[in-house]
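Re: the pair you flagged

First of the two:
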Amino acid sequence: MTGPASLEVSHSNHNGVLHIKTRGALNRPENLHVWEQVQSISNEHQAKRVLIECDPTSSHISMEHCFELIEKIPLISRCLACKIALFEHQISGEMHELLKFVETAVTDRGAHFKLFQELEEARHWLKNRPATSFSEIPQLDSDES
């Protein structure tokens, strides 16, 4: 799949892990659709373990993309009762802080989600920790204030 500003999304399924790769700039608002594509691919494959790999040439992720991740990842996790790992080759400085913010916000919303800097570590986490059943995933109660 391709989209604005040379953004590409590809995927493969290996040993029960749906591996989704994004290539292109994640700091441009016109590329926010990438997370809708990730959600669509995950739903299409009914994945229980999803590995999202961000482009190693992406030097920064925008705040808009962070909030889009915070919205989409818990939906994918709850709808599919799946675990999601985000792998970024080079996380440092402000980008690391933004992605740690995303990790905290997403897990606070009940998703089984973790940020990784090593691909094999992400795969190990996905494969060796069982995916949680839907009934065990915390549900958001709209009556809570």
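Second of the two:
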Amino acid sequence: MSLDTFDIDLHSVELAGEVDSHPNFQAMLLSLDSRGHKFGSSFEDMKELLKYRIYPLGSEKLSALMQAIKTDTPMTEFMNLGRMSEAKCHECGVYVGLETDGLVMRASGSCLCPPEGPIEFELNVPSGVMIYTDDLRPLFDIVGSFDINTRLGTIKHSQVMAKIGCAQGYVGNSCPDVYQTSDTAFSIVGVATDDVTYEPIDEPLGERMDQIVTDLWWYSFVDADEFMRRGGEERSRVSRLKVRPGVYKFSHNLRTSKDEFKTFVFTTVTWVREPDPVKDYLGEIAQVNFTAGQVIAHKLAKWPTLYRGEDAVMSAANHIFCVIGGGGDWHPNGFVQYDPDMEEGMSEVEIPVFDKPYRWYPLSEYSAVVIAAGLSEERDVIHLNPTFLALARNVLQCIVKHRSLPMRDGDTNNDHILAKKCLDKLDEMYG
């Protein structure tokens, strides 16, 4: 492919080179205001990436930026330099965008992760017995997931798990010990040991009662009666702790690198009041429902650069029903959920009739729409609520009518044949 194929603005290229090499621009980057974000990338990585972010700004914007840099006079508005793939905040998980007024370089938004310190959640234990281990799935689990490779993701996960009756905290691969500290309190502690003797370097306060083996890098505590209501009698690898009936506060700390090689108290657990009324957690979970319009609205708001333009809704529908895996969890009530903290009653987008050629992802037995039609030998059938059934039919009718545009030039596919089979099966199943 020749260079003549591209429309290159040589003046913009020259201006971008001047901006990038100017000492004031380099100084701005060195004093970058991260607004609470914490990056894993080095300064050199950021510097190299930023060079490519300013080239596409165009002559007009680059001239204004160069004028501000040379004269030490800020522009009237901050100029958006775009998101940077290497500038992912390991606190909140956002790919951070940068902006500048010619004097200051800063992140385009503040980090949403709370300051370092303990997070708190509660567990109601009316039975007076706690069941605990590392992993209590699928008895206690959420629909959707958070990015638990970030601090904000682990915090949100613990908070949402507490809402379904499970006190769960991230402890890494530490196999922490449980120490009784009083009649109504205990601690979950990662005990540092000698590399040779494996004896504790410093013994925590209290009486050691047990150890939690963390094949899953979390602990999970639940009320014994709630555990049995969910079929817990079939679980063998659990421990039991008799406690005073009541509500217990878990004050949980996330260990950082500075705490790596010393005894660390992950969580202090304290009785705070008499038992709350028993909640029907399973009943609440069974009542949750979302429409296809709500789920797509959530996807569009969360990933605006992935789903954009006039085909944004089609793109989201393609990801839900055609792309292998789809990325979310299907609820028994017939909707897919990506974030466990989606709120009922949220707004929804209007879903148009898909009636034009589109590049749908090739259908396979791992596509949700094929699974929902009962045509997958590898997956159990997905139940669809009325709005997701309508969305599935919308997608399939478009593929049947217009075929699917090839993923690459020269490709051919017969997705319209499988799409017609799926439509027929859905008609049999739902009428």
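The chain has a mean pLDDT of 89.

-B.
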